[in-house]
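Same chain as my last thread, 83 residues:
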Amino acid sequence: MTAVQAARRVRAYLDFPKTKLSYGSESVIVTKAHVVSGESDAKDFIIQCKDNSLLAIDELIGPSGKRMSGRAFKNGYASQKDS
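reply #2:
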């Protein structure tokens, strides 16, 4: 799936059935995302898609059920993985 298709799916499935993403051993619900054109900030939660396009996850609902930014999830997940 391309980044454009994924971003459209996130918007289309916002209410039902939700857009789920598995990241490592965690499962999250993506609530806001956008296509990244050009360079991306290394701190953002970026996913490389099928055609090498990039999708930035702006907001998600984490495994705990708490809504958070993609950046906060990435930072928390990375710190758990490192410890």
